[in-house]
């Protein structure tokens, strides 16, 4: 599989089999992703993989804790504007349509949303951290690591779902994964093998046409 194919095949998977990828493979993905570019070669990430009883213990505590959004690190800007508001809305509608949950079924939507707190049933949770004093440029570096990890996972036949959701449970996560003082959760990644029978995994996110966001000048 080449990079172009991995880019086309990677998507957010939200239902997994129980098969656990090996520790050697998970570590290799983590190490390969660390070849990602970073400004000044700062490599401003710490990354942990958690599975088995350790994962279940963390998820049990998450289930009992209220999530807290950090106003400095919201997943979306408040009062989202166009075209981003429509893109986000359409993505949500497509997701819930894939599992037959209409807009008026609020309980059904909340049930699906709650699956974020279990890494969508993935057997491995990846958690990324950075120091709280890092700025937007270092968060860009985290995104490069994140994408690199997901592409390598795709190459190995694994499925992923990147989750900003885990920032809400920073305090709980750090009770189960040790990081130095001053670090905070930035992203989670659900990792495992795709459940190809799950209807939700048939959903495909759309992409805006090149003309909406791209320019070529001087060619």
TrEMBL record:
Which controlled-vocabulary keywords does the entry list?
Flavoprotein, FMN, Oxidoreductase
User: According to the lineage, what is the superkingdom?
Assistant: Bacteria
Residue ranges constituting the Nitroreductase domain according to the UniProt record = 7-193
Which CDD domains does this chain map to?
A: PnbA_NfnB-like
Q: Which cofactor does it need?
A: FMN
The record ties this protein, via Pfam families, to: Nitroreductase (PF00881)
Q: Which InterPro entries match?
A: Nitroreductase
Q: What does the sequence similarity comment in the record state about its family?
A: Belongs to the nitroreductase family.
Could you tell me which PANTHER family the record lists for this protein? NAD(P)H NITROREDUCTASE YDGI-RELATED, NITROREDUCTASE
What name does this protein carry? Nitroreductase
Say which species the protein is native to.
Answer: Comamonas jiangduensis
Species lineage:
Bacteria, Pseudomonadati, Pseudomonadota, Betaproteobacteria, Burkholderiales
